[in-house]
Write a structure and sequence with these properties.
By secondary structure, this protein is of the alpha+beta class. The chain has 5 helices and 7 strands, in the order βαααβββαβαββ. The protein has helices at 11-24, 32-38, 45-53, 92-106, 121-126; strands at residues 2-5, 56-62, 65-72, 77-83, 111-117, 130-139, 142-152. A hairpin with a 2-residue loop joins strand 2 (56-62) and strand 3. The longest helix is centred in the middle third of the chain and has 15 residues, at 92-106. It is globular and about 40 Å long. The two termini are 25 Å apart. Residues 1-153 form the N-acetyltransferase domain. This is GNAT family N-acetyltransferase.
């Protein structure tokens, strides 16, 4: 498994991984209506490519298969942290997180923060994040519960 920066040819796999993970993993904690609002079926690959190049997007590459990905913004915000359904609880997320934390330290970022889903909250707790608050957010007309979490480096 190699953790590396996103490349253009990763776009389709990353977009599909996001969609499939939300639909097959996050469905455990959210309703079908919430899942469809979160990850609609009309994936726009061009939007994903632009998004991934606009921040530090790391992918876990397992011999050409993207096993997970996550994004670090220059302000310390971690966004879009997803592991493929077939790579859940295999250490992929931990490996991606270690690279993100190292990059944050290189950039002299001393505070990481995330809005973690109900599903992702335990992972971020294991990575040393603490919960700042529970919040409700709206996406495409659906209301979601997630958690603002932070970690001081």
């Amino acid at each position: 498994m190699k953790i590396r920066l996103f490349e253009k040819q990763d776009t389709e796999q990353v977009a599909r991984l996001f969609h499939e993970t939300v639909h097959e993993i996050n469905i455990r904690n959210y309703s079908s209506a919430q899942i469809e609002a979160w990850a609609p079926d009309d994936i726009h690959f061009i939007d994903w490519e632009k998004r991934c190049f606009s921040r530090f997007t790391y992918v876990a590459d397992d011999q050409g298969v993207i096993a997970g990905f996550a994004e670090l913004e220059p302000n310390g915000h971690i966004d879009c942290f997803y592991c493929h359904k077939n790579y859940q609880r295999c250490g992929v997320g931990s490996q991606i997180y270690q690279v993100i934390e190292a990059k944050a330290l290189d950039l002299e970022i001393n505070h990481l923060f995330v809005e973690a889903s109900i599903t992702a909250k335990p992972f971020f707790q294991r990575m040393g994040f603490s919960t700042v608050k529970q919040q409700e957010v709206t996406c495409r007309g659906e209301i979601f519960i997630n958690y603002v979490m932070e970690k001081l480096l």
